[in-house]
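Let's practice the habit of predicting before peeking. Look at the sequence and jot down your guess about where helices and strands might fall. Then scroll down.
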Amino acid sequence: MTPEPEPRPLLRDARLADAFDHAARSYDTLVAANPGYHAHLRRSVRRLGLPRHGTRLRVLDLGCGTGASTAALAAVLPGARITAVDASEGMLRRAALRPWSASVRFVHAPVERLAEAGVSGPFDAVFAAYLLRNTADPDAVLAAAHRLLAPHGRLALHEYALSGHPAHRAVWNAVCGGMVLPVATLLGDGPLYRHLWHSVLAFDTADALARRVTEAGFERVRVLPLPGWQTGITHTVVARRADGTRRTGAGRR
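Done guessing? Here is the structure:
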């Protein structure tokens, strides 16, 4: 059994973007070794419940990385216009190597500065995969998503958010400490993957994440598990912006 790692400071903002830039060249290779990675993303997209293959709908992909989440959106919602955003220029360069339809565009910008980058709503859906725990202020990101959504717009967070059961935490530690980190270290990306390991341990449980989303002004919040070895480790949190709701709460402090 892999022991619980010693807490370390997490990478944030520019340091985290730089770490993703450096890891971009091997990122897709590592995630491809994760059974079900791409199928799970597509499942979370389907959980948005958007009609007619997303025809004429606007969808925002926050934290798109090398485009795995964008590809999932494009596969499930071929009729949607997708705006994919990431703070890492290196990850976006890798995303640009994939073939994309004209309905997909990529924007280099931190989530906190979308307006400066020309990203404006309203969007019919916001999808964020593996993003929220990597931001310095998750509540600010949720507030931005809320502002950018149209009334009744859908939100889906696809996130490593542990169930709270000790067994699921132990599996996460074993996979990261015994498999992912050794390989990432050999590739020269140990700092990033050590951060990703710790970021999950330090972040909300799935139920706490659902409460955070509710406190951000969303309704119909549900936590949906994902299958396979990630049961109890990865969840989809889906929610909806209410019709005409204004976010009046200040979120967590």
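How did you do? The helical segments are 13-32, 37-46, 68-76, 89-95, 138-148, 166-186, 190-202, 206-215.
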